[in-house]
Amino acid sequence: IVVANLAEGDIVKVYSAATAGTVLGTATVATGETSVSISVAQLGTAAGSVYVSVKATDKLESARTTKAYIAEPVTTAPVAAAITVTNNATGTPDTVAVTGLAEGDVVKVYSAATAGTVLGTATVATGETSVNITITQLGTAAGSVYVSIEATDKNESTRTTKAYIAEPVSTAPVAANITVTNNKLGTNDTVVVTGLAEGDVVKVYSAATAGTVLGTATVASGETSVNITITQIAATAGNVYVSVTSTSKNESARTAKAYDSETSAALLATAITVTNNYVGTNDTVVVTGLAEGDVVKVYSAATAGTVLGTATVATGETSATVSIAQLGSTGGTVYVSVTKVNKLESTRTSKTFVTEPVTTAPVAANITVTNSATGTNDSIVVTGLAEGDIVKVYSAATAGTVLGTATVATGETSVSISVAQLGTAAGSVYVSVKATDKLESARTTKAYIAEPVTTAPVAANIAVTNNKVGINDEVVVTGLAEGDVVKVYSAATAGTVLGTATVATGETSVTISVAQLSPTAGSAYVSVTATGKNESARTAKAYTSETSAAPTAASITITNNTVGTPDNVSVTGLAAGDVVKVYNVSTGGTEIASGTVDVGQTVVHIAIEQIGTTAGNLYITITKPNKIESTRTAKAYLAE
After folding, report:
1. How far apart are CA 73 and CA 624, in angstroms?
2. Please, which contacts does 13-21 make with residues 24 or more away whose CB atoms are closer than 8 Å?
3. Hey, is 554 helix, strand or coil?
4. CA distance 262 to 487
5. Nearest-5° angle of CA 162, CA 166, CA 169?
6. How far is 628 from 124, CA to CA, in rounded Å?
């Protein structure tokens, strides 16, 4: 600190503070001088102030004068663009080059922005403006160094950050360029890697990280691939992990590559085609997607079982055909394996197959069943066939009885099968077809209607006359056709045929005489059998008793006249030929009068000489033609 304009003998003091503080230095102005220079070991690197006082002879020390000072001179930090960091692969020292310097500049490379470790230092040589600092190892990963410069007579600069990239790493191999062949025990496994450069070192590991090196090889001069032999990778499927180390680069990341088991991969069911031919032609199993030398075996079961056939894929081929004498007429399953070259046999793949070729079942619309009346054979006609087709008609959808069979003749497309009797009721037949070199088809159901049945006679068209014993009864049926056969039965079902008759040519009615229906009222049961039809159901027809119906009291009128005039009994509601008898007692006795209804009349008048003068009763009966006399009906009369 230099202070001027003083007087000799003045004492100058330099303080660290405006008051109190520390005396940093002091000096006395020499004789004949007007200034003084005070040396201070270190004010500080940064800017600041000192506080200066003067004490003249015979005077007190002055107040302190503040004097600011600037910071110590600092070198300018290097520009990041002037720094080049080369992070070489492991084994080659890394370098930091700095340009734009002055001779004598000292360059330091640090590991951190502050503090840290000096990784390397160098001084710019005379006549040079750059420096190259060698560092054994910055690190494999990317990072930063921190560079300072210390120029002559200046303090060290601040540190400039300079990022550097990771050490150069080889490009990992592409999985598609790696081929792993995992051979069965006894044959070395191989890992082939393509797309390389000469001098590349390839390593095969057992794991994605760490693990064991299974094998290594270097790409020869002029080559782009390498083949690594490994005694045994594993019996089962898994992965190997492959790295590449190119010249002047670190080892690449490991690329995972799956390999299959020593056992051949099982076949896809979609690659297997089974053809189950008709008896007499060998069946075949075709497998595609193979490689030459593959051995295909066809088994009868998923495990164990019998080898039905085997075949080896020929040179240049990708498929194999196995011929088998007979798989079976019905559908089923085969089990197919493949054994690749230098591999164990695969597991078996199941493949179902259909039945031997089956004839198409006949269409129901092509079947016509005629269920004729009893006594005429029924028929089944099938169309849409081919010559040689064999048609069978069954009684049931499965099993059952063969009702009839026929073969389509040469040049024909239909066949007619005659069956003695399908049945009177409606039902179904079941028809199959067997074409040449095919199995019998499924059965087609074809319904048929009942045998044609005659329409039952209408009760209104039947008249039954039940005559008294000794005169045959009659059943008259109208509304018929010639040739109709009419039967009269004693019961609605079963019973006895009381009589039968056939309608004559040109006629529409028939009269059947029956010896005796019954003394009492009842019913006859009448059926009709038309030509070509079965007998109809029976129609019930009621008939009256052999005894005439008694007259009603209301139909009787008695007039009891005075003596001298005959009395009269009139009965209405009668028919011609009816005989009316008058009794004076309810049972026994003798008729006192009688009368017969004239033709065309429905009433009879009977004159009686004298009934009696007082009131009383008469008893009236009716006897219809060919009938027995009715019971007596009582009718009161008045006195004269």
Report:
1. 170
2. 13/52, 13/53, 13/55, 13/61, 14/38, 14/40, 14/50, 14/51, 14/52, 15/50, 15/51, 15/52, 15/53, 15/64, 16/50, 16/51, 17/51, 18/51, 18/64, 18/66, 19/64, 21/51
3. helix
4. 93
5. 155
6. 169
3-class DSSP string for 488-525:
EECCCCCCCEEEEEECCCCCCCEEEEECCCCCCCEEEE
CA-based torsion, 266, 269, 273, 274: positive or negative: positive
Tokens of 475: 């059943």
Beta carbons of 548 and 627 less than 8 angstroms apart: yes
Give the separation between CA 164 and CA 92, rounded to whole angstroms: 16
Q: Which of 433, 431, 360 is nearest to 396 (CA)?
A: 431
Question: According to the model, what pLDDT value does residue 279 have?
Answer: 87
Tell me the per-residue pLDDT of 82-108, one tens digit each, with 9 for 90 and over: 999 999 998 899 999 999 999 999 999
Closest CA to 567 of 542, 585, 592: 592
Q: What pLDDT is recorded for position 479?
A: 97
With H, G, I as helix, E, B as strand and everything else as coil, classify residue 315: coil
Q: State phi, psi for 453 to the nearest 5 degrees.
A: -115, 135
Task: Record the pTM.
Answer: 0.47
Contact (Cβ atoms closer than 8 angstroms) between residue 249 and residue 170 = yes
CA distance 109 to 631: 157
Q: What is the structure's pLDDT at 71? A: 93
Burial class (CB in 10 A: 0-12, 13-18, 19+), 525: buried
The pLDDT value given to residue 31: 96
Buried-state track 278-294, b at ≥16 Cβ within 10 A, e below 16: eeeeebbbebeebeeeb
Rounded to 5 degrees, what are φ and ψ at 616? Answer: -175, -160
Bridge partners of 139?
Answer: none
Q: Which tokens hold the place of 380? A: 């089944």
Positions of the chain with pLDDT under 70: none
| Whole-number CA gyration radius for the chain | 69
pLDDT in tens, 10-60: 999 999 999 999 999 999 999 999 999 999 999 998 999 999 999 999 999
Burial class (CB within 10 angstroms; exposed 0-12, middle 13-18, buried 19+) of 479? middle
pLDDT of residue 138: 95
Are the C-beta atoms of residues 621 and 550 closer than 8 Å to each other? yes
